[in-house]
């Protein structure tokens, strides 16, 4: 089975080009609409895509066309995407989109190929879209190596509850880290203080009540570390 490593990409100012406007193409388009300009090329569009184009998720361009395997290359050259998503129900078109994307130095997400169909390396620019959980600025990416997307979804739903409040914890511990540095606290003490804050049940519970409660709890955890 292909081993894949999760990396995080910044697509601001970039374009994601999706071939295929069905159930899968529209899920991918909505996934990327907050992160990038999205163009969907397809002869027909899922209802969800029409809602997305009208909604406030950012502008998704819907282009009505059914390029054949030869014509997808021209679309990629014109649109210059950072990522191509091959999500049509035509395997030859998806394969052509993958090849043309790689030739154009773009990333490619092939939605119709399982890990079992890809023995050996898939190449570093052939990417898997993980299930993601977000509590800004915290992001969890989850993959089953392509073995079971349904499991990726189920695990994502479990983790959603686990990381509730992680965004606030990231903000709080990030600013405490800067403050301890400014106060000239020695590096080892600083690290120990932050390590204890992010593991403190009291701070997590405090953050659920509000940022200032979390802050108070964190301050007492830190004072304990500093007098040790
Ligand atoms: C390889 C990969 C390529 C890629 O698309 O990137 C891929 C491929 C395929 N998916 C298939 C099926 C389903 N995919 C989902 C759902 C998701 N699929 C996603 C990713 C991936 N899917 C990549 C691997 C991810 C990993 O490593 O785990 C998620 C995580 C992200 C996203 O797509 O946004 C998103 C959940 C998002 C969320 O909810 O958080 C469901 C569940 C549902 O719809 O309820 C089903 C039906 C149940 C099932 O079959 O498991 C099929 C069979 C098609 C057929 O029937 O022939 C193939 C093709 C094949 O395997 O051959
Ligand atoms: N990655 C994933 O999570 C999943 C992947 N799949 C695979 O993804 C593919 C698409 O699945 P669905 O969206 O459910 O199928 P679908 O049939 O709902 O959508 C396919 C879309 O591709 C469009 N299309 C056909 N020819 C085209 C062309 N030449 N250029 C551009 N668009 C074209 C169709 O008009 C349609 O809108 C299938 O091959 C399936 O095996 C299926 C389920 C989940």
Summarize the structure in words.
The protein has a five-stranded parallel beta sheet with strand order 3-2-1-4-5, sandwiched between helices. Strands 6-7 form a two-stranded antiparallel ribbon. The N and C termini lie far apart (49 Å). It folds into two domains: 115 residues, NAD(P)-binding Rossmann-like Domain (Rossmann fold, 3-Layer(aba) Sandwich), CATH 3.40.50; 62 residues. Helix content is 48%, strand content 17%. By secondary structure, it is α/β, with parallel strands linked by helices. The protein has nine helices and seven strands, in the order βαβαβαβαβββααααα. The mean pLDDT is 92. Ligand SHN binds next to helix 1 and helix 5. This is precorrin-2 dehydrogenase. InterPro entries: Met8-like, NAD(P)-bd_dom_sf, Sirohaem_synthase_central, Sirohaem_synthase_N. Its EC number is 1.3.1.76. It catalyses: precorrin-2 + NAD(+) = sirohydrochlorin + NADH + 2 H(+). Keywords: NAD, Oxidoreductase, Porphyrin biosynthesis.
How is the topology of this model organized?
Blueprint: E1 15-21, H1 23-32, E2 37-45, H2 47-54, E3 60-64, H3 72-79, E4 83-86, H4 91-103, E5 107-110, E6 131-135, E7 138-142, H5 149-162, H6 166-182, H7 187-199, H8 201-209, H9 211-227
Parallel strand pairs: 1-2, 1-4, 2-3, 4-5
Antiparallel strand pairs: 6-7
Helix pairs in contact: 6-7, 7-9, 8-9
The structure holds ligand SHN and 1,4-dihydronicotinamide adenine dinucleotide.
